[in-house]
Amino acid sequence: MRGQDQGPLWTESLPGPARAQEGTWQSRSEPGEDMMTSPSEQEPKGMFECQLCGLTAPYSYVGQKPPNTHTVVLLEECHVLKDPFTLDKDKFLILGSPCSLCNKLVCVGQECSLYYSKRFCLPCVHENLSAFPQEIQQEVEKRRAPSKAASKKSDSRTLL
Amino acid sequence: MSSSKRTEGKGYREPKSSRQWDWGCPETRSQLEEIFFGDQDVIRRGSEDCRKFWAFFERLQTFQRSKAGLEAKRPTEAQAPPRPRGTALADLPATYDPRYRINLALLSGKGEPVSELRGSRSQLPHDRLAEFRRAVLHYLDFGQKQAFGKLAKLQRERAALPMARYGRHLLQALQEHQVVVVAGDTGCGKSTQVPQYLLAAGFSHVACTQPRRIACISLAKRVSFESLSQYGSQVGYQIRFESTRSPATKIVFLTEGLLLRQIQREPGLPQYQVLIVDEVHERHLHSDFLLGVLRRLLPARPDLKLILMSATINISLFSSYFGHAPVVQVPGRLFPITVIYQPVPKEEAPTSKSEKLDPRPFLRVLQAIDHKYPPEERGDLLVFLSGMAEISAVLEAFQPYAAHTKRWVVLPLHSALSITDQDKVFDVAPPGVRKCILSTNIAETSVTIDGVRFVLDSGKVKEMSFDPKAKLQRLQEFWISRASAEQRKGRAGRTGPGVCYRLYAESDYDDFAPYPVPEIQRVALDALVLQMKSMGLGDPRNFPFIEPPPAASLETAIVYLRDQGALDASENLTPIGTLLSELPVDVVIGKILILGCLFDLVEPVLTMAAALSVQSPFVRSAQSNLDCGTARKPLESDHGDPFTLLNAFNAWVQVKSDRSANSRKWCRRRGLEEHRMYEIANLRRQFKGLLQDHGLLAEARPAPADSYSRQQQHRQRRELYQLKREHEESEGRKRKVLRLEALEGGSSSDEDAEASRAREGAHAVDIQVGHLAGMWALSPDGGSSSPLPSPCSLGALGRQAMPTGVPAGSPAGVHLQTLSLTDPEGVTWQPGAASLRTFPPSPFQDVKFKLRHDMGQLQAAASSAQDLSRDQLALLKLVLGRGLYPQLATPDQFNGCRKDSDQFFHTQSKQGAVLHPTSVFASNPDLLQGGQTEAREKGRDSKDGLSSRHQLLAFVSLLETNKPYLVSCVRLPALQAVLLFSRSLDTNGDCSRLVADGWLEFRLESSERATQLLSTALRLRARWEEALDRQLARQAQPRSEERAAMALKAERKVAAALGRDLLDFMRSKVSYSTHRLTALEAQNLYVGPQTVPAAPQLSAVFGETAMSPHDTKGGYAVTSFLTYNCLMSDTDLYSDCLRTFWSCPHCSLYMPFTPMERMCHENTCQAAPDQAAPGASDEEAESSRQASALQRTYHCELCQKDLLLTPTEILRHRKQHL
């Protein structure tokens, strides 16, 4: 665990005798103290950026089978990040995926895309609105109204 | 997502068939869990997630049931949409189903093999399973939406910060310049965003300093949350007791003091690419010093970037200090604030320092708010007062008003409050009621409270100032600066437009100083100078401070350090100085630690040193509580306050290790703040580590444990970690709704004058001690000073007018039970709010404590300290006394005739100091009057006050509020203490008159005893010094294990023998009187240089020391501190020439001696018996000397022995045979 080496740290690439006795001034912490991370953090692969709203976040995996999960598969090729809001290693957060029509990389936010057996960016949905079932059409219409009033995403997310 | 709230599962369309089906049936649930929530599954049985799922499931069902009703009425048309043209649209499912909206699939519980494995599946109908699977999918999808929503919200909030628009600008400036100043007011987001911009720009070794430890923690938490590595390790913090830093850490938040320590170790700071110094405008001692150090460092590290962050205060000062560094100015995010000037009318203004604050002007503002703003319009009031006495005066006046109108909840806020009480200011008032927070300047910068709409500014602040001449700290009330006034005003405009009432005229405002006085100009600089010396920064007088401290302060500090032996005559660090500079504590405390190691009193000394370095754990409000007083009694020690602290801590540890006992309750009963106990435990642990690192303390080898107990221990720790993790998962105190009722009687408004005076003083001490502790980043929360003559009439009347228990028929919401309001995730963030809250609740503290400390070890230490023998206690006192010297005070000679509360004490530079009311001696003054009482008993006419029991007080600090207070006192036998510690001892001819340090005079009854004591003291001092030198030399030498162990053992024995002899000395009974010299007496103290250079046969006195006439005092300088016969005598001028018959107790020599000759003889004569003192056999004495390099073998022909002696010892030995 990390606590074992409470040294001076992050100095590998730097010159100088950096590995000094800094430990004195740190809590001489026991191994594992102050620790909550697994040492094998998933390294970010790159930055995901939504081509519609510009939301950016690092992603650690692209595909349908997020790492560390065994019983869940994704039904589309997603950019995935380990869920940063929980300690669980196997929780992941889907950031976005390419629109199945225009292939633009879009986030899963309500203002940018929807999923109906495939990912569709909202511009494409609007363009092909009639191809979608009525439920979707109604929903999109509903969404459009407030999003025109205030371009910001609304915070109210209802259950389901 | 609304459209997905549709039909789910066919089950609900056939209500009849599912009648016997019950999702709630435990057995069914258990089966389902078995199938879906296995170890490999996303949701695991029994986990928090699992509980959440079932809650979700229930809501889902309710929802679906209601939906199902609607659905049935609506004709299911589901007409196929026109067939699409594109390929992607071609195979869209024609009939809508919410499951098509979910981009996840679940593998759990699928397929026959699994079902066989999991056996029981057959009992569950297929459609139910399918339905359940869909529910799980919905749950997972919901979780995704929630998490993504959080992420998106976070990004939006970041983008909305004023700082966001300047990120690029900053990075560009940083590319072109080595130093950039970022100026922006609270709320602009600089502290959280700048580190992240750096990270995003590819910097990976960023340090960001903060003046407060708490801010380090809360910022690290926030920044890691925002940068999505909440559970990662790229963002960390490092403070005194804790570090979350790892090799993967890219940004670390740390205190200024800590960064300085790192520079001390590695002047080039190679571990960092970018340094951010935040809150430079606060001008703390450390931050000013850090800036100076960095300015020197930058040319040597051209690749190092420095960012200064400041409020928009005096930016040009910082910019120009760093060669006109570019400034990135960021607008704050403040709403407009109306300023109303309401100067206090003359008749209500306090006329003298001692008068109590008149609350009427404050009350009028409260009424004005009630009058002008309907209660439905929310918005709280923040009142800035100078100190605690002022807070309680206003509180007293506000409470009856609040109770009467039922529109206010009044809360005090200052740093001496218990943590629970401090936390209350973040709670929410019930509807229709406003919160009124009475605060010191702690709410100006360090604590941010949301929802404040009104600010009431008294315009006053209490600040610590330092009197370099008296080495006294003074807490005084001042007008604030314009910068502070603006800062206070700004607190009203954080959440919406606000109003600021100022209790001074606009012209006053214009007269205010533009900026507050920087700390470096207000405090003692000992620690700073010591650190500068150890960093090799040269002469502190020439250091290019951003604004230099007063020259007198620097001089005082240098002289003080020289006096303490930390600097030599040419102002270079001595070995002890080097060691002291390594200890992150005040010089005095450091000395106590070192001295304690010598006598093997490490455990109690560690505790005392730690306890004296933190705020007092004794809660001030409990002072007036009788029950608390009684419960505390057994903890009190009549030796002095540090011993009381020691007892309290040890007792607490015992309670803590006793499983059945509840330490929290125990603390509350005694009016102890448990958090301080944790701090003491942490600090003493750090001290111990430091002493070990410096070889002053042998590292304890872990006792060999059998594998069983090791396992046991391991398991216990695992469990504790589990607890800790769980706590961290559910972290964050939830805001509560305040109760009107509870608050009325709750806050103490009825403390008597005595108690509140006690609190004030003690509070101020907190601050002082805070600074003492060097790296303590305590908020400069003003204390208070004005004495409270009697309970305020207004408050008292008000209370009488209101029957108790009034709020029976109070408006709606008053009786609301406390309930949780905020979302547990607490996505909205308050740096300040977080700050007070970072102290986790007690149960968790306990876990953390047990993780960090070896309970067994601590308990052993505590219990060993509990049964300290009388000898050890006495030795401990001696150690404290020597550490605290010259902070000594003598009781006024008429104290015996005074009331308990009127006891006066005098220090060398300050007359008429009083005991701090929390002191054990304040309640038991007779402990200090031993001498005087005895003298009186002996005979009324003996006005000389002869006694053998005179006491002196050694104190930790001298603090002036309305009176000068002695804080944390230990009592010591007066004469003995002075003989052992004084840097200057002057005697008359027969040594019956002694003057210590030019201010304390002692007259001894018998000159014979006097000379005897004096010569014993000289020898003891020499031995003590030698032992200390050896201890320090050991620390400096590289240790070879075996030799070190041997030397250590020998030293131990020597030290033990020394300890015994010191104790004997302390116990020696001699009758004397003591007296503080008047100014006149002090002036005509010395005979002055003598023309007669007669020093007959004096060369032999006191060992090898050659006596020479003293140039200024007259008489003869015997040692560096002792001057013989230099005192102007009022009796006989010839005493030193008079010989009287005397018989030596050692060699039975009987002949006439002058006192000087007698001393001479005694000294040589005693050398032999001394060495053969009990416990120190020849052999031991020999081994003890091995360390000395000067020794050589000497063959004495007279005693036919080979001895290992130093040259002086040889001389001494020869003398024996004369």
UniProtKB/TrEMBL annotation, chain A:
Cite the Cysteine-rich DPF motif domain residue spans from the record: 48-140
Listed Pfam families? C6_DPF
The record's InterPro entries line, in alphabetical order, gives:
CDPF1 (IPR042426), CDPF1_dom (IPR018785)
Q: Which domain of life is it from?
A: Eukaryota
**UniProt-annotated stretches for the region Disordered:** 1-41, 140-160
Protein family according to the UniProt entry? Belongs to the CDPF1 family.
Q: What is this protein called?
A: Cysteine-rich DPF motif domain-containing protein 1
TrEMBL record, chain B:
Annotated Helicase C-terminal domain residues: 368-536
Biased segments, Basic and acidic residues type: 1-19, 722-742, 934-945
The GO biological-process annotations, alphabetized, read as: negative regulation of nuclear-transcribed mRNA catabolic process, nonsense-mediated decay; nuclear-transcribed mRNA catabolic process, nonsense-mediated decay; positive regulation of phosphorylation
The record's PROSITE patterns line, in alphabetical order, gives: HELICASE_ATP_BIND_1 (PS51192), HELICASE_CTER (PS51194)
E.C. number(s) listed in UniProt? 3.6.4.13
Q: Which residues does the annotated region (Disordered) include?
A: 1-24, 68-92, 722-761, 926-945
Record Pfam families: DEAD, HA2_C, Helicase_C, OB_NTP_bind, WHD_HA2, zf-C2H2_DHX34
- State the UniProt keywords alphabetically: ATP-binding, Helicase, Hydrolase, Nucleotide-binding, Phosphoprotein, RNA-binding
UniProt xrefs under InterPro entries: DEAD-box_helicase_OB_fold (IPR011709), DEAD/DEAH_box_helicase_dom (IPR011545), DHX34_Znf-C2H2 (IPR056382), HA2_WH (IPR048333), Helicase-assoc_dom (IPR007502), Helicase_ATP-bd (IPR014001), Helicase_C-like (IPR001650), P-loop_NTPase (IPR027417)
Entry's Gene Ontology molecular function annotations:
ATP binding; ATP hydrolysis activity; helicase activity; protein-containing complex binding; RNA binding; RNA helicase activity
Question: Do you know which SMART domains this protein is assigned to?
Answer: DEXDc, HA2, HELICc
Q: What residue stretches are annotated with the Helicase ATP-binding domain?
A: 171-331
Q: What's the top EC group for this one?
A: hydrolase
Could you tell me what reaction this enzyme catalyses?
ATP + H2O = ADP + phosphate + H(+)
- Oligomeric form and interacting partners: Forms a complex with RUVBL1 and RUVBL2. Part of a complex composed of SMG1, DHX34 and UPF1; within the complex DHX34 acts as a scaffolding protein to facilitate SMG1 phosphorylation of UPF1. Interacts with UPF1, MOV10, EIF4A3, XRN2, SMG6, SMG7, SMG9, UPF3A, UPF3B, CASC3/MLN51, XRN1, DIS3 and DCP1A; the interactions are RNA-independent. Interacts with NCBP1/CPB80; the interaction is RNA-dependent. Interacts (via C-terminus) with SMG1; the interaction is RNA-independent.
What family is this protein classified in? Belongs to the DEAD box helicase family. DEAH subfamily.
Q: What is this protein called?
A: Probable ATP-dependent RNA helicase DHX34
- The gene coding this protein: DHX34
